[in-house]
DNA sequence: CCATCGTGGAGGTTTACATCA
DNA sequence: TTTGATGTAAACCTCCACGAT
């Protein structure tokens, strides 16, 4: 069963499905894959860089403000990523004071901290949607199998049927269609459980298929990637 | 109330960089 | 060693909701 997050400040999804080990570990930026070189990083302890970057951040970040200045890509250091992750775990949103404090602590611009949180929230949501999609796919498969089983059972019971075409219900004395009836193997009483269960399963399948389709389209057009992702359902 | 403005988040896109065949 | 395909994440853009004035 899926335990959907009810607290907005804690987005990690916990899904426990037999045979499906979810690993909601936070992305750690590839560990050793990330180079230590950081083009936006302060070379070493320049206080004037910090103050300058804080003050004219709108210039350096503005797309058209930079005019010919090509967009340079920052790679966060492991320490910076870890700190941001830790902060994100505490709270998924930023207020201006916290943003400034983090920027100062990380020697980044406030805008960079803000962007990182935006992207991190998007990744978190994408991951959640992917897991939900995976869960619904499994649910759909399970229900389809259950449906097949029940259909077979109905067919078998119909084939076995030797009783008259209609039976009077023991509850309200209304005539029932024999085709909707089943025989309880224990008490040998006629019941309608199989047909009822079949109806329920059919309804569930419709619901699961609809939801899975919606989620698949969401995941397929990933919020973070313009290119097709391998994680798409 | 209603209009306007500023702010922040969501969703989507672009782009620089890393990795691998 | 070079190169093209692909994945990842930072940066950006647009839209919308919401609160303040």
Total number of beta strands? 6
User: Spans of 5+ residues with little confidence (pLDDT < 50)?
Assistant: 1-68, 177-183, 185-190, 221-233
Annotated CATH architecture: Orthogonal Bundle
CATH topology heading: Arc Repressor Mutant, subunit A
Separation, N- and C-terminal Cα atoms: 20 Å
Relevant terms:
233 residues, mainly alpha, Arc Repressor Mutant, subunit A, two-stranded antiparallel ribbon, two-stranded antiparallel sheet, 6 helices, 50% helix, rod-shaped, disordered N terminus, disordered C terminus, DNA-binding
Task: Report on this structure.
The protein has 233 residues and is mainly alpha-helical. The chain has a single domain (45-61, 74-220), classed as Orthogonal Bundle (Arc Repressor Mutant, subunit A). It is built from six helices and six strands, in the order E-E-H-H-H-H-H-E-E-E-E-H. The chain has helices at 47-55, 57-61, 78-90, 96-106, 110-160, 193-220, and strands at residues 2-3, 14-15, 166-168, 175-177, 182-183, 190-191. The protein has a two-stranded antiparallel ribbon with strand order 1-2. The chain has a two-stranded antiparallel sheet with strand order 3-4. A two-stranded antiparallel sheet has the order 5-6. The longest helix is centred in the middle third of the chain and has 51 residues, at 110-160. It is rod-shaped.
